[in-house]
Predict the 3D structure of the following.
Amino acid sequence: MSRKVVPSLRSIIDQDKATAKKARASWQMFTIMAEFIEATEYLSEIRPAISIFGSARLPPESKYYQQTIEISRIFSDAGFAVISGGGPSIMEAANKGAFEGHSASVGLNIELPFEQSGNQYQDISMRFRHFFARKVAFVKNSDAFLFMPGGFGTLDELGEVLTLIQTAKARRVPVVVIGKDFWHGLLDWFKTTMLPLGVISQSDMDLIHITDDSNEVLEHVLAFYKDHTLRKDSEDGMFYL
């Protein structure tokens, strides 16, 4: 059996090409580090905070857009900073509700060739080049995750959050999906197909709470933290960690 020949970067004959590749790789590492550092500096003091995910394509007339504003305002007035992807549609609604409330409205914007443009309702606005750095910022700084109806990106974030909690790579926090008509089919597939096959367990199903009620979202999060470190200030009525 012949041995594979796998050249290393240093063995490339064209030294100029090798140097250019190493320079680009090194520079990319610096930009990634800079995004992690900036996110830590900007976001470390905003807790408690929730993240709201959802579609970038639903119009303002959508009932989900309007409900996102309502939910975001409820949490903002209760003392939770609200983090979104900073873009249009559900992300805009999340920032808008928080912007009108008592707590910080945070947008973690991503540079994309289409769809993404920062909305105007951000008290704190950050821009990321790398999806994974942005995802780390969401997970590291969120005390609950709320999912409105959305597309592939929303499903990706839901799967990522559930995987990190399931594997204990992230701490257990509330995960709420809002909109029974939209989410019921997916959760039913989890229950009737994945669970019987044994690829997930019942405890994994217990990670997700589904509701249509905006006030119930806050109640569920507060119930989760009842025996944790969340406390209510007697003077301003807001919650703090």
